[in-house]
Amino acid sequence: DLLIDGGSLHSDLSFKDFNNYSADIFLKNISLDSIDKLMFLNNRYGGILNGNINLSQNQSTHFMTANLFIDNSRFDQLNYSNTSLKASIRDSKIIISQFIGQNDSSSFDISGFIELDNQLKFSNYNDIDLRGSISNLDISNLNRYIPWMIAVGGKLSSDISISGRLDNIKFNMEPTIINPKFDKIYGSKIYGKVSYKNSRLYFSNLICQTTDGKYDVNGSLPINLNYFNNEEINSKPIYVDISAESKSMEFLTPYFPFIKE
Fold first, then answer.
1. pTM of this prediction?
2. Is the Cα torsion angle 53, 54, 59, 62 positive or negative in sign?
């Protein structure tokens, strides 16, 4: 057994040669915080990992299956009390049968595939195709990925599809956001169509309801959600077109307190 900071890794190996082998790996209470430090991953991952992994190779065919469970998982500011993953690797492709996370107020459920290169690593040109749903995601946890100094907030729920390449990810969703916040502006509900491509987030017929009115928002904002692409987007333009029906000037008074309604 290999002991890792209070956890353990046990393996059973059947080995004929480097082209023919099989290994069962059992993980118990492995600290992802420790792995993060060991791999210099900038404190992005955390949690306690349990589960099992099977690795095998028969001549040139690689195969892997994984059933993993993470208590108190963390990726950046996204935290879930229980996370589970059922996945396999076959023909240079990660196949995600089920990836589920949940906490007291939020959850996600994702399945699909992500391609790998010939060395079974992620590369810029690998395709991704994922489908799933998100419930009550606190979007304030995504502020670190937004280049401007404007905070957003609210609880987001939606089905979602993710596709494209790892250096140019695309997604489409029709979200509902409860209690949305954009800088000093607060609403009661947002719904509409949102898509992402070419490092821009697009809004189409996005309806924002507030206490005093309703706003129809169309446009796009720069944001980089790609795995590899480090494109500088701080200087990219923001395009927003807003049509409003309101009983007050609620979009202006937070910034111009001298305006009297």
1. 0.78
2. negative
